[in-house]
Amino acid sequence: MGTAAGDGLVEAAAEHKVNLSARRPFVEALRTGLAETFFPDDPFRGFGSRPPAARAWGALKYFVPALEWAPRYTLDKFKYDLLAGVTIASLAIPQGISYAKLANLPPIIGLYSSFVPPLLYAVFGSSNNLAVGTVAAASLLLASIIEEEVPPEDNPQLYLQLFYTAAFFTGVIQTALGVFRLGLIVDFLSRSTITGFMGGTAAIIIMQQLKGMLGMKHFTPKTDLISVIHSIFQYRHEWKWQSAVLGICFLLFLLSSKHLRKKKPNLFWVSAIAPFMVVIIGGIFAFLVKGNEHGIPIVGDLKKGINPLSISQLTFTDKHVNLAVKAGFFSGILALAEGIAVGRSLALIKNEQIDGNKEMIAFGIMNIAGSFTSCYLTTGPFSKSAVNFHAGCRTPMSNVVMSVCIMLVLLFLAPLFKYTPLVALSAIIVVAMIGLIKVKEFCHLYRVDKFDFCICMVAFIGVVFFTMVIGLGASVGLSVIRALLHVARPNTFKLGSIAGGDVFRDVKHYPHARNIPNVLILQLGSPIYFVNAGYLRERILRWVEEEENACKIDGQDLQCVVLDLGGVSSIDNTGIGMLVEVHKNLDRRGIRIALTNPRLGVIEKLMLSGYIKDTIGEEWVFLTVKDAITACRYALQRSRSKDDGEV
Fold first, then answer.
1. SS3 of 298, please?
2. What are the phi and psi torsion angles at 307 (to 5°)?
3. Where is the STAS domain (predicted)?
4. Which of 302, 522, 539, 563 has the most C-beta neighbours closer than 10 Å?
5. pTM for the full predicted model
6. How far apart are CA 471 and CA 185, in angstroms?
């Protein structure tokens, strides 16, 4: 009677069997793996059914997104883009001059960098919301790397040439990453790293602006907090009270405009044009009172005319090329992370999508072209992009409008900005940087994930007390170590039954889950590689030993171990060897091993290696944990019946 019932259970369990005969040719498996790694979004899906001409046109539109939106462009959209473009142009002028001064470059370079790159992004960029321009963090990072070997005071021409060369290498690296679909490299800059790095950079930039706020002429080229504070007091005899008073007035005006925007979001344009108003008012004031003669230093002469060609100024000499590559790489990765993150966050609000790899290509092309036309590194800064978004932009045409406005300034108005007080630029930078120190985000990280908080603080402290490269590198290194720990020490869970035995969950998460008598159910939740195979072997055997001891207390024996492989996406030869060792160890103890829900890539290797056929047997591979438990109970029942018969 019992045997008949057991046979019925086994037949029910075997009704739906694991497909052990599934095989994929090596070429197909390789193609699938590469496609999932480099083309997870499958951008060319549906191309196969089109005629050759349509496929070519579709591919061209993929790499040149302007061909997608330009044919459908309307006058109604242009009205919004015109307003947005003029608004961000009013922000680009003071920011361009300010960030160029932050990088110890001629102020006109900041305006040049807001003319050519936005035109190219409008053609190759995929974001409707991103506004292109220079950024403070990358400007300071470039300056901190380059001036270590080439101080701008000693050789300003070579210093400028290295900025152009660094922009060229940045463009090459970004384009290569986009073409070869290597955007995953940027993913190593986690949100925690970026938050800490940007916060630390903002703190250092704010401290450095005390030079402009106090009207000082000499300052340290170093970026760490100790050097900055020492420099401020070392040259305290250069402090100018006139600059300090004017700077405080500008700060109060800019902070008031930001406060107004928070209170009344519809008046966002007030805070958007506030920096431009500071430049205009400050320039008029400095001109009227002859500020340069009364403790208010000014920008100085700005040449009229559009960007001169700079391709002949790129320097590839052995002495300096490594420096340019280093500066281009670090600043380029940082610029990519910021630009793509900003584009994605704004697109999410509008329920749009942007392609990270296309963005890399767009950034790369505009930086290569920029290096040929007297521009340094550009990306999509958050402040300018947010203004562009709130101004109602509809397409990348807003970047074209901004570029045209900057061109008009360069052709006709540039000399008028010569009277802009340096203290006005410092005030603009300080207010822009305050928003990058995200104290609420720091607190959120501390509450949610202490390790993420540590990664964030390593970046912040490293930037503030050492250098930007050390802070960024240390934080990325800690993030990588964390990722490796997750791979090398994956979680394993003991499962128990809930909901009448049909559902099995982690017993720590669900303390009321029941243990199955004589059966240990373990869930492996990661790929099994050489890195973690030894750990998994020891962890499984430790689970077995603990379960055996628990069974003996109840007067029972552990008869079967069920390994749920649903979370194991892949396995290598070392992992297979680990499973063989575990089977041998359990077999010596008289314990059977069963596998459930193995994936295609895993089952292929287990079959080819002979582990299933020659080691555990095909009959011990099941679709579900419930099927495996049913088979274990039946085997236990048969074993007991056999023992009773012998007696």
1. strand
2. -55, 125
3. 509-632
4. 563
5. 0.80
6. 18
